[in-house]
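Worked example 3. Consider a protein that binds coenzyme A.
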Amino acid sequence: MLFVPADSDKKLAKALGSGADALVLDLEDAVLPERKPLAREMLRSWMAGVADRSRLWVRVNDLASGELLKDLPAVVASRPAGIVLPKIRGPEDVRVVAHYLDALEAAAGVDAGALQMVVVATETPSAVLRFGDLVREPLPRVRALTWGGEDLSAALGAGDPRLPSGAWRPMYEHARNQCLLGAHALGVEAIDTVYVDFRDPEGLATSCRSARYDGFTGRIAIHPDQVPIINAAFTPSADELAFARRVVDAFASGAGAVAIDGKMFDIPHLKAARRQLGIGA
Ligand code: COA
Ligand code: MG
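Given these inputs, the predicted complex is written out as structure tokens:
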């Protein structure tokens, strides 16, 4: 998901050709408070010129900001795929915003439930503490969870969320793990957070491969140069797909456990291989 500040003509112009699966037009932290009205206007007129808006998302301001109700009417009428909701404090924020969307979709003549949500689930201490509450009931509009360390660190009065090695400090590793578990508990996508050093392609590639290994299904990008690296890291290679096919074929005999190249494979391996091939769990 490539983030694009909605008040930058230059970046909006560049965004569609980036190859990202999703563009997140940002009305929140990449836009100064005094430029938010202008950003909403630019967003609206730019989206009107894009025929297929199914890849477009808008990061709106959070529920406590006083800006969200100014964002949502402009966004819903433009009918993107959905919104990215930052800084939730708990599931009630997701529910309240879903109700706003119900009303605004009806007012704009958009199909009920059409706009989806990607929730940034770890940016407030309350959200991290109460993470389990988020997965208690289905959240029908939610398509993915993602997480962020910078706002959590600001809320804690803490310093850089990373250790000198680049690894996350324990608090942020915890938040990241919560996001990963939460997304899979809800049965939605888990999107790993931004890699801020956009001039470090090798570091990004290594970090993305590790994120995919952990169970994340995609990643936030902040610069067009990051998009092909992220896409490559999250796309199964030909070798991985061929091996997944071997695993699925090995179970065709009806056995619950099989041997491949001297190693045991049972039902969890079959599920993983089927998921990789896109044929369900
Ligand atoms: N989306 C679309 N285009 C972008 C872009 C983005 N996120 N980031 C950079 N570009 C464009 C630039 O406008 C520039 O275009 P040009 O070739 O027409 O001049 C080109 O890509 C190269 O950009 P570069 O000079 O390398 O970077 P920069 O110094 O202009 O911008 C950032 C660096 C970090 C400010 C910029 O990448 C950015 O704004 N990222 C998004 C920030 C954001 O949304 N943060 C909130 C989410 S965490
Ligand atoms: Mg932020």
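Take a moment to read the result before moving on. The beta strands are 2-5, 23-26, 56-59, 82-85, 116-120, 142-146, 189-192, 218-219, 258-260, 263-265. The two ends are 25 Å apart (CA to CA).
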